[in-house]
Amino acid sequence: MLKILFIIMLTSTAFLSSAKPSQFLVYGDMPYSHIDADMLRKPSGLLYQAVRKTPHDFIAHVGDIKSGAAPCTNAILKENYALISEISRQPFIYTPGDNDWTDCDRKSLTPRYDELERLKFIRSEFARSAVKLNHYERQTTQPENQTWLHNNIRFITLHVVGTNNGRRQILLSNKKQARAQINIRDEHNVTWLRRNLNPNLSAAVIFMQADIFVNPKYNKSCTENRQKKCDGFKEYKALLNDITKKYDFPILVSHGDTKAFCLSKRPSGLWRLNGPGDFQYLDIAQVSIDIENKVAPFSVRALLADKVISDCQ
């Protein structure tokens, strides 16, 4: 009996040590044109074919499902969402970007939209159904925020967008009302992040659209009394740095918004992936998580370019 138990223990240990790292795919800032739309289109699109050939647990799109030069019509948003959500057989995750709602009031667009109306549309169309992932949840107060657990790795989406987190260029909405909604969205984001992290996790990955690490035009935090000329991302950077130092497991922020496609580790220990998209990098990232690798728990490969992605400069 003891011999049998010993064999079972050895077999279990061998199985755990040979387990493959968790893998997922992530991209954003597309389709912006007919070129990348064709690359995503089944059955012959290059990105579509690459995704179908690549092992992954799920695929995430970190926002901006159309270019800033295209109007935010129902038809365009629905058509592009269908394109990005059908590229994989695995579960699909989407978090909104500024092109999808906050920038829909640009003077160059025809037609133009009230951004709060477009946010309501995004939530009603693309933030309703449950996704078939382990322990999957949507935040009740902000349904585009999602979370799930895979291999004891916590995955979280936060609704943080470019254009200074939506604080810049409020052109058609009531400015006071729009800024009040931004404050509420920030509160929900912080609550969601804190609620879904605990010291027993093996790792965490946070998806958002905005590149919160871009050099800000203004250095002061946005407050109730300072709604303009402020850094809409400063509090997020401080919070993520604090959380990284608090927990003894690796944390990755995966975002889009800016042109670089790179992976780096920040001074606080927080990992950052600036994903592909935005015309210059028409590709999709395959992210592998190896919790046994204490030096580099996250590794990234570009599907089409078939190369390992290196440090951000």
Detailed description of the structure:
This protein is an alpha/beta fold and 313 residues long. The protein has helices at residues 2-17, 34-40, 46-53, 74-85, 115-126, 162-165, 175-195, 234-246, and strands spanning 22-27, 59-61, 92-94, 137-138, 146-150, 153-157, 203-207, 251-255, 262-265, 271-274, 285-289, 298-302, 307-308. It has a 7-stranded mixed beta sheet with strand order 4-5-6-7-8-10-9, with no helix packed on it. Helix 2 (34-40) runs parallel beside helix 3 (46-53). The radius of gyration is 20 Å and the shape is globular. The termini are far apart.
Task: Report the span from N to C terminus.
Answer: 58 Å
Average pLDDT metric: 92
Portion in helices: 25-40%
Biggest sheet architecture: 7 strands, mixed
* Poorly predicted runs: 1-19
SSE order, as H and E? HEHHEHEHEEEHHEHEEEEEE
Q: What's the quaternary structure here?
A: single chain
Strand order of the largest sheet: 4-5-6-7-8-10-9
The chain-level structural class is alpha/beta
User: What is the radius of gyration computed over CA atoms, rounded to a whole number of angstroms?
Assistant: 20 Å
